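Hey, sorry to bother you again with one of my protein questions. A protein chain has come my way and I'm curious about its shape. I'm sending you its amino acid sequence along with the backbone structure tokens. I owe you a coffee for this, so here goes:
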Amino acid sequence: MTTPWERFKQAVRLEEPEQVPVGLIVDSPWLPGYAGIDTRDYYLFADKWLDINRGLLERFPDATWVPGFWIEYGMAAEPSAFGTRMLFYPDQPPAIEPITTDLAFWAERIQPAHPHEAGLMPLVLRRYQAMDERLRADGLGIRMVCARGPMAVASWLSGITPLMTDLAMEPERVTKILEVVTTTIIDWLRAQLDMLHAPEGIMLLDDIVGMVSPRHYEELVQPHLRRIFDAFDGLVRVYHNDTPCPKLVPHLAEANFDVFNFSHKMDIAEVKATMGHRVALMGNVAPLDLGVNGTPEAVHQAATECLDKAAAGGGLILSFGGGVSPGTPAENIDALLVAAHEWSQQHRASQ
């Protein structure tokens, strides 16, 4: 019988596994609350972090956790390398405050950050190295690492409104910033991969991309996304963007990623028809209205509808349309898993 990770990789290759995989993005917005601990303790105490993440494998054995054993401080690792201010809280990930809203400041001064020296990055790298060794001793390991994308990181440096304004009014300035940030992201992903014994994938998260026009995307954003994904050819490459952006869907696959995790506000059948059989789709149940606030029965129904629309022919990973939101009950994750199992059984029986 294939493992959840093997089914996930089959879907990545646009194949049709014997059971549709369920892949879920989980990190510190959800995990400390799920485990009932202070968010700061989740970051500080390695044994707590390890027990919580390893416990997911026991509680939900049929799920693939994306990236799985993710060492992160909310969205702070990348912007912290450029000197942004961080504010930590007991019940949520850290807030990040821009140093200045003037992008001219960054265009004049920004230099690539060194992952082994800058901000929180060295602490993340050291913990990856230590935790991968401990997990390997138990027959496990860390398969995937992550980074925030260039637009997301740039938005934390100056704020979203100044970034979007200058994207239209001062594109050369923004391009210079994005080039440096992209170089840092590639170096950051490589440094994380170097800490692991047998890495298999990367995930890039950038919701800000969904806010730009198709023209600005193709001219000013896609080259940086493509540069990042091209640097990791041969690995599983997941792109998360849960900002509704139907106008970008025809262009996004050209960025050269393998898996697209997108907004539940975009119909999964339409996304599949528009993208064609070029990338695997990861979605598309509403994470808040259903994942957090819905009943297991409602989650099961929505999941089955997604499967009916997009699972046949392969290349589907059932998920929420984004990460697992804070407050998501375990029973609603169970409902996704049950729906995938039942649909797959019925689909095989009908063939």
